[in-house]
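Extended Data, panel c. Modelled sequence:
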Amino acid sequence: MPLPTPSDSPRSEVRRGLYLAPFDELADPRVLIELAMQAESCGWDGLFVWDHIVWRAPVRAVADPWVTLSAIAARTERLRLGPLVTPLSRRRVQKLARETVTLDHLSNGRLTLGVGLGSSNPDELVPFGEVVEPRERARLLDHGLSRLAELWAGEFEPPPVQHPRIPVWVAGKWPNRRPLARAAAWDGMFPIELPGPDALAELAAEIAQQRPPDQGPFDLVVEIDPGEEVAAWSQAGATWVLTGFGPQPRQAEVHHVIANGPQ
């Protein structure tokens, strides 16, 4: 079955978002709701959250991303939101299809689904009986994406608000090229651990070669540190630049960055 593609109009400038781990100080969903509302009022374009069951010490508290995103969707009107990233190998696809469509309706079509193999941390896999072998996780990811497209396309009712479907960003760790080929079939790529803008430009050129001109726009999403310049990433092809705060975000720092607005 051919994969559907998004119908959004091409982006003329880079969009700015926040990339937050819902851990420790941000594990309270009410805190994240407050941050999201502040971000919307200060001109940010999106807010995305990590999707994990547990994390390494010293992190202890972890919030569920889907409950958190639902609460944020109900209290905001403009922010694009979503998980970065959901590992399909530890999800039942039919349940994820229901969750994503419900959240797409709740947010009036503001959901982007970030997917990937997920963490290689054995503490998040082995104790819960999850698949550990990377190739098998990749196979389950591809199968899960195919089934999601089918379920969104009419096997389940209602369909998503967004047409022809919810956008999908695929994560991949630099310099691995296998995720690039996967991402090129969908709507965006979130390359992890890029050494710099030149590497992003290299990926952008390779994706342009793989995607037919009529396949629609494609997002290149990068994470930067607070205060880092955006211009070089934009020139390299980034359509979304997300400010991240690592696995132990401090509420005060996030508030400060939000208040200064997307630079």
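The beta strands are 15-20, 46-49, 80-83, 86-87, 113-116, 168-173, 188-192, 219-224, 240-244. This feature is highlighted in the accompanying rendering.
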